Amino acid sequence: MSAAGVPEHARPLTALRFLAALWVLCHHALPQQGPVTTAIGATGWLGVSLFFVLSGFLLTVRYAPDGTLRTTPRTFWLERVARLAPTYLLALAFALPLFVRDARVADHGAGRIAAIAASTVSLQQSWHPALACQWDCPAWSLSVEAWFYFAFPLLVALVGAWLLRDSAARPGRGAMLLAGAMGASAVVFPWLERASASWPAPVYSLSPLARWPEFVAGMALSALIGTRRPRFAGPGVVALLAGTAWLAVVVTLRGPIMDAGLHLLPPSLPGFVLLVAGCWLLREHPAFGLGAPWLVALGEASYALYLFHAPLHGYLLAAANRVLGRGYDGTWGLFAGYGALAILLSVAVHRGFERPWRTRLRSRWGLGQRAA
Fold first, then answer.
1. Whole-structure pTM value
2. Domain ranges of the chain
3. Average pLDDT per block of 10 residues along the chain, 372 residues long
4. What one-character DSSP code corresponds to residue 226?
5. CA pair distance 279, 222, nearest whole angstrom
6. Hey, how many other C-beta atoms are within 10 angstroms of the C-beta on 348?
7. Cβ–Cβ under 8 Å, residues 156 and 68
């Protein structure tokens, strides 16, 4: 463990989590006053996909590197609850006044409010488009993650031995699954988004069914590079630069891609895989700055940043409208203040609430030391 409490091998990936959360924040609030900021803001929702790839990769590396789950399913699930539930519930409480205000403006009846509340608190909101983004919108992706966590021990039992045992000597299996996941994303994601709109109970592109390929791509990547320890930084640098360039091309060409009737997420997936690969391969090369303590600390707080930035933006927007008579979305100074406040809030929540409650729950449930 490092001084910051983050395993050394996870430090670059922890830093990458902060960049993903920051991209999502930019999607909701970045002033779009030029081609660069417009491109970054318009595509910031893709940062969620990076989280899903990271999740599949890190869970496999930590809990099933040799194809066998290192703990019991019950312990694994309890560890996930201890890590995520306290901050999730706190974020919902933080966003509650906005939810009540919006429900009044929309004149929601008691039945609809109850449905939104029940689905959001129970992490089921991603299964229905009318409920997914009603109460702290970014929380829908935690609903998807919850299903990934539920299924992970089952996936390991089904394909873990085939995929991960002796993976260094048999990389073809990981490559085959990775290619299959990318192909499935290109087919399943846009098909669900178009086809399910007419279904009686729509299951669409924000649902776990559509996002499985991203998580599985992370698992497959762990089979390819999970045990690799390059002596030189070259492979990691190449992967990191290639991933950045790939995503830059996708973001730049987003207009033609969408005009052709395609979705941005499937062509972005290879870029995210390359970013994760690059950070992992550079984990023993601190000279590149990905393990800098300040960046890792922000990465540790990225979960809180992801959940709290949208309601904070809502409160500040309401205050600016009342005090200034206008919003601040197009004002760089106010955006910078909002971004700094969101980061400070996330660090405070992580250190003062998330980490203590995680430790408390782990102790109460007898989970022992934090998993590496």
1. 0.91
2. 8-71+144-180+214-364
3. 51 91 92 86 92 95 90 94 96 95 86 91 87 88 94 92 77 89 85 63 73 94 87 87 96 89 88 95 76 89 96 89 66 86 97 96 82 46
4. T
5. 12
6. 14
7. yes
